């Protein structure tokens, strides 16, 4: 009977050795595919100045050129190198995605843990979160940017705020579940102070779901940034971002399709990589979710 | 053919060399290492052992209810009325499950559907296996609830599982299991989750119902006290094997396997007087992931000698009708 | 002889159901109702009862994991219910708890060493070496090899995990350990190992136990005195041998009779007690046991019976078996002897 009813626990991670990597890759291929793709994109983005040309350089004589050895993806309506712009665009997308995810994760974690532990804070914070959830992301971003003027910083904040409630609620539910666990009570009985209980016994349990949620937030942040830039309220138009590129090239789809397809495909691949990583992490942390062989 | 009829007269369920394996990511757990036993018509067979010994797996193997992706019965036969259940189609098996062999579980809340009334669920069980109309089935449900001594069954048929107490839910489960007058009832730790006074009521009910309906019962439990109060014959399991098999009186009078003896002695019992230290079985249950050489109990056994660590003892009769899987069973019985 | 190590006076815990935003009267769960007892140094007091009788709530109240609605918990004469956080932390050192479930009571992410030394590190800084030495010592005390130090709980068996739970409780060298169903989740052979360990520890270190269990066999084996609880109240509190030899309260009787006995030749004569434990939200009036009681009289429906001291040092709350009138008559005659008997039974236990 223990075989069937043995308590399922999440496998403590961090004990696997490097030599286990091939085995891990076989058991959790999604993490490796998603993580690999994402790593590749990050390297490409960081190294862009080394191999790609100047994304801002305009050449009125070379507008809407087809691909050539100098400009692999051709040029756009202002004669800028589409390949360089796409590669530099990766920087913007990943930066916005990762930083908004980090903001949302850290902010949500703090709110969630406090809400999970303090009833008074909980009742206030969760109502505020309900309020936040009812504001559409795009509208909030437009409102904020019209107040401050366009900029990447404000864009990140605008994208991260609507993601806060989801993260906070997730963390709160984990905390509420864990704080009643006997090992937390045992720590209290052993004389542990509240900060230690939170840090040592409660926080670690929130990390796995937080990472999964973080990946989801990152993916949707990348899409939101592209959407906002496309609408002209995101990244300032002179900065190469995929949304800007698609927006400014949409009239020339028939003449120079790569001006749209290059950033579009990159966007799709990036979001796919992040989502794969998120799904893979979920399976890794919660073996029950995965269909067993 | 002739032989089958004689068996069918006496033996209801005949399990031979049943082997079930569980498949993990990197390992195989040999949950049942080839067990053989019989359940006779109308008898109550106790199956005792500690967690992980394979007693629940035995029940699930018989009913073919093992989790499909991780477990498989890899060998043996389960003859019910002479027909091997392992060879039946899934469809034929459905006709047997719940109809001729019924099962009740430890936690009744998880085996009752929370969104239907108890009466509805019992009536459904009646309707699946008989041609009763809806109102007939409901009437039968009420009658069954009365049979399991639920007071005020007219009202209780309309209760949802959460409106009942644990004891009452277990009674409802028994009512459902009895809906089609099964020939064999497998009860897997049916009283473990209940309080002692409620346990006493349920045990009494099971014994009474068995006498009234003539259903054979396979009673799986870890509690030797429960076995003593309800069963006629007992098999003791350890690490996926049967280590002892005897009538209940015989088993308690002269346990012949060192594990059975250890088990009996480690239960606090006031009839032995108040000793300050309990005799304990040292060590822990072996892992079933690695093949075991020799007797699986040898590392914990006070009687173990060289042969025990080399050759696996088979279950053999020490005295007629009392079997033990131990090389030194005769000496153990005398000890 | 100084006062008792632990003294519990009129402990009561009501859980409100819901927040009562609109309606003023909120229904409450009467989990623990007016419970008093004391524990001497080195003694084992067992609390038995069925699920919902409030025995686990008593444990949590003693540890102040929940705040009492009313009543006092005194350790060496100090009321811990009134203490502020830091003073309470200090008092927690004297009293530790062993939990029921050896799986969920150990943090799955920490190593054995960290788990069992954490209580000490809450109060003082340990160097790496000191911590290892302490862990090794604690592991040896509970019969485990110090080599286990670097394992994770998931790599251990149920019995080993429960030993860790005990090692953690021992870390602060408490004078009282509260064991809440500490052996209930274990297999019998492992249960025997753990019970023996507890007995050994008591003998070596003079630790007192409040041992909470539903298993009468275990209670009879390990207890010095036993309190029987029913629906939040103590119905009988007696020296262990006396209680099992001759239960007075009809519920104690029913409980002992219901426990299955591993002897197939014994014929069970008595019918099991009828009915089930009523809800603590709406307990029966008078004596909570009266709807199931075979000897209930009219008065049981009306008055809650008080705990009445009996001649053999036990207290019983039953109108029929321990009527108050008897006490009054007795107290007129043998009031002095009565007290002497009670304290005698106490000192014989602790001595």
From TrEMBL, chain A:
Matching InterPro entries: BP-dependent_transpt_permease, MetI-like, MetI-like_sf
Pfam family, one: BPD_transp_1
SUPFAM superfamilies the UniProt entry points to: MetI-like
Residue ranges of the TM segments: 30-52, 92-117, 138-161, 251-278
GO biological process: transmembrane transport
Topological type in the membrane: Multi-pass membrane protein
Chain ranges of the ABC transmembrane type-1 domain: 90-278
Key words of the record: Cell membrane, Membrane, Transmembrane, Transmembrane helix, Transport
Keyword Cell membrane: yes
Gene Ontology CC terms, in alphabetical order: plasma membrane
Subcellular location: Cell membrane
UniProt similarity note: Belongs to the binding-protein-dependent transport system permease family.
Designated name of the protein: Peptide/nickel transport system permease protein
Organism whose genome encodes this protein: Rhizobium loti (Mesorhizobium loti)
Lineage: Bacteria, Pseudomonadati, Pseudomonadota, Alphaproteobacteria, Hyphomicrobiales
TrEMBL record, chain B:
Compartments reported by the entry: Cell inner membrane
Domain ABC transporter stretches: 13-264
Organism domain of life: Bacteria
Membrane topology (UniProt): Peripheral membrane protein
Stored Pfam families: ABC_tran, oligo_HPY
Single GO molecular function: ATP hydrolysis activity
SUPFAM superfamilies: P-loop containing nucleoside triphosphate hydrolases (SSF52540)
Positions of transmembrane segments: none
A GO CC term assigned to this protein in UniProt: plasma membrane
A biological process term (GO) from this entry: transmembrane transport
First-listed, main subcellular location of the protein, grouped into a coarse class: membrane
Record keywords: ATP-binding, Cell membrane, Membrane, Nucleotide-binding, Transport
Protein family per UniProt: Belongs to the ABC transporter superfamily.
PANTHER family for the chain: DIPEPTIDE TRANSPORT ATP-BINDING PROTEIN DPPD, OLIGOPEPTIDE TRANSPORT ATP-BINDING PROTEIN APPD
Protein name: Peptide/nickel transport system ATP-binding protein
Organism: Rhizobium loti (Mesorhizobium loti)
Higher taxonomy: Bacteria, Pseudomonadati, Pseudomonadota, Alphaproteobacteria, Hyphomicrobiales
UniProtKB/TrEMBL annotation, chain C:
ABC transporter domain boundaries: 6-256
Domain of life, per lineage: Bacteria
Membrane topology: Peripheral membrane protein
Keywords: ATP-binding, Nucleotide-binding, Transport
Pfam families according to UniProt: ABC_tran, oligo_HPY
Record-level Gene Ontology MF annotations: ATP binding; ATP hydrolysis activity
UniProt subcellular location: Cell inner membrane
GO cellular component, one term: plasma membrane
A Gene Ontology biological process term: peptide transport
Record-stated family: Belongs to the ABC transporter superfamily.
Protein name: Peptide/nickel transport system ATP-binding protein
Organism: Rhizobium loti (Mesorhizobium loti)
Lineage: Bacteria, Pseudomonadati, Pseudomonadota, Alphaproteobacteria, Hyphomicrobiales
């Amino acid at each position: 009977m223990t075989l069937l009813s043995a308590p399922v626990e999440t496998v403590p991670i961090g004990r696997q050795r490097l030599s286990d990597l091939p085995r891990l890759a076989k058991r959790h291929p999604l993490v490796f595919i998603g993580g690999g793709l994402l790593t590749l994109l990050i390297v490409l983005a960081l190294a862009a100045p080394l191999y790609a040309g100047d994304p801002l350089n305009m050449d009125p004589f070379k507008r809407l050129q087809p691909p050539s050895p100098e400009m692999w993806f051709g040029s756009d309506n202002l004669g800028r190198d589409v390949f360089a712009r796409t590669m530099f665009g990766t920087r913007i997308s990943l930066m916005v995605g990762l930083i908004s995810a980090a903001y949302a994760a850290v902010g949500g974690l703090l709110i969630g843990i406090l809400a999970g532990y303090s009833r008074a804070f909980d009742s206030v914070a969760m109502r505020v979160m309900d309020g936040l959830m009812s504001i559409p992301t795009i509208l909030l971003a437009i409102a904020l940017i019209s107040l401050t003027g366009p900029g990447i910083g404000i864009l990140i904040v605008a994208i991260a705020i609507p993601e806060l409630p989801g993260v906070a609620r997730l963390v709160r539910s984990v905390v509420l579940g864990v704080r009643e666990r006997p090992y937390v009570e045992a720590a209290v009985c052993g004389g542990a102070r509240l900060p230690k209980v939170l840090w040592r016994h409660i926080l670690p349990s929130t990390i796995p779901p937080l990472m999964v949620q973080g990946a989801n937030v990152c993916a949707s942040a990348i899409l939101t940034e592209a959407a906002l830039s496309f609408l002209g309220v995101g990244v300032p138009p002179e900065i190469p971002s995929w949304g800007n590129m698609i927006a400014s090239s949409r009239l020339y789809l028939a003449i120079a399709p790569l001006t749209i397809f290059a950033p579009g495909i990159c966007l799709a691949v990036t979001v796919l990589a992040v989502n794969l990583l998120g799904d893979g992490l979920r399976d890794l942390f919660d073996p029950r979710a995965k269909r067993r062989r | 053919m002739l032989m089958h009829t004689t068996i069918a007269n006496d033996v209801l369920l005949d399990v031979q060399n049943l082997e079930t394996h569980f498949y993990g990511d990197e390992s195989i757990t040999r949950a049942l290492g080839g067990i053989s036993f019989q359940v006779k018509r109308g008898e109550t067979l106790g199956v005792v052992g500690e967690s992980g010994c394979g007693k629940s797996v035995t029940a699930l193997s018989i009913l073919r209810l093992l989790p499909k992706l991780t477990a498989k019965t890899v060998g043996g036969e389960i003859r019910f009325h002479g027909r091997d259940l392992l060879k039946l189609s899934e469809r034929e098996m459905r006709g047997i499950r719940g109809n001729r062999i019924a099962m009740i579980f430890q936690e009744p809340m998880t085996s009752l559907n929370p969104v239907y009334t108890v009466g509805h669920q019992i009536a459904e069980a009646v309707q699946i296996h008989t041609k009763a109309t809806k109102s007939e089935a409901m009437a039968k449900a009420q009658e069954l609830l009365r049979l399991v001594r639920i007071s005020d069954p007219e009202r209780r048929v309309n209760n949802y599982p959460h409106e009942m107490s644990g004891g009452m839910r277990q009674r409802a489960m028994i009512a459902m299991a009895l809906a089609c007058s099964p020939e064999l009832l497998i009860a897997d730790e049916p009283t473990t989750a209940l309080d002692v006074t409620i346990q006493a009521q349920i045990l009494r009910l099971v014994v009474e119902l068995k006498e009234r309906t003539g259903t054979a019962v396979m009673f799986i439990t870890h509690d030797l006290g429960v076995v003593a109060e309800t069963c006629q014959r007992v098999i003791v399991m350890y690490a996926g094997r049967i280590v002892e098999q005897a009538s209940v009186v015989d088993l308690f009078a002269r346990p012949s396997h060192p594990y059975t003896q250890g088990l009996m002695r480690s239960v606090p019992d006031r009839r032995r007087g108040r000793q300050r230290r309990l005799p304990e079985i040292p060590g822990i249950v072996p892992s079933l992931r690695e093949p075991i050489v020799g007797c699986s109990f040898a590392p914990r056994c006070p009687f173990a000698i060289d042969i025990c660590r080399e050759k696996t003892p088979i279950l053999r009769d020490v005295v007629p009708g009392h079997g033990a899987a131990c090389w030194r069973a005769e000496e153990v019985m005398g000890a | 002889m100084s006062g008792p190590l632990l003294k519990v006076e009129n402990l009561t815990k009501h859980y409100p159901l819901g927040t009562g935003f609109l309606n003023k009267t909120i229904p409450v769960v009467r989990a623990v109702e007016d419970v008093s007892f004391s524990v001497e140094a080195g003694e084992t007091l067992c609390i038995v009862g069925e699920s919902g009788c409030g025995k686990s709530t008593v444990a949590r109240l003693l540890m102040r994991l929940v705040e009492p609605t009313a009543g006092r918990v005194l350790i060496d004469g100090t009321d811990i219910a009134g203490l502020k956080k830091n003073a309470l932390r200090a008092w927690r050192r004297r009293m530790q708890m062993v939990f029921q479930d050896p799986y969920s009571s150990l943090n799955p992410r920490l190593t054995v060493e960290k788990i069992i030394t954490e209580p000490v590190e809450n109060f003082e800084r340990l160097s790496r070496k000191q911590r290892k030495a302490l862990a090794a010592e604690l592991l040896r005390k509970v019969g485990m090899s110090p080599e286990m130090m670097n394992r994770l709980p998931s790599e251990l068996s149920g019995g080993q995990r429960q030993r860790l739970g005990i090692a953690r409780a021992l870390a602060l060298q408490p004078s009282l350990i509260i064991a809440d169903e500490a052996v209930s989740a274990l297999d019998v052979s492992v249960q025997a190992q753990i019970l023996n360990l507890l007995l050994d520890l008591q003998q070596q270190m003079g630790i007192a136990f409040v041992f909470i269990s539903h298993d009468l066999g275990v209670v009879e084996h390990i207890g010095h005195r036993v309190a029987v609880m029913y629906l939040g109240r103590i119905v009988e509190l007696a020296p262990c041998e006396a209680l099992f030899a001759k239960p007075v309260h009809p519920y104690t009787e029913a409980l002992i009779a219901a426990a299955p006995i591993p002897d197939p030749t014994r014929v069970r004569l008595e019918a099991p007690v009828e009915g089930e434990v009523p809800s603590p939200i709406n307990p029966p009036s008078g004596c909570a046991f009266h709807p199931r009681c075979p000897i209930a009289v009219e008065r049981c429906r009306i008055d809650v019976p008080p705990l009445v001291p009996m001649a053999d040092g036990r207290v019983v709350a039953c109108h029929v078996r321990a009527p108050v009138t008897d006490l009054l008559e007795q107290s007129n005659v043998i009031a002095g002897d009565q007290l002497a008997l009670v304290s005698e039974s106490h000192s014989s236990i602790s001595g």
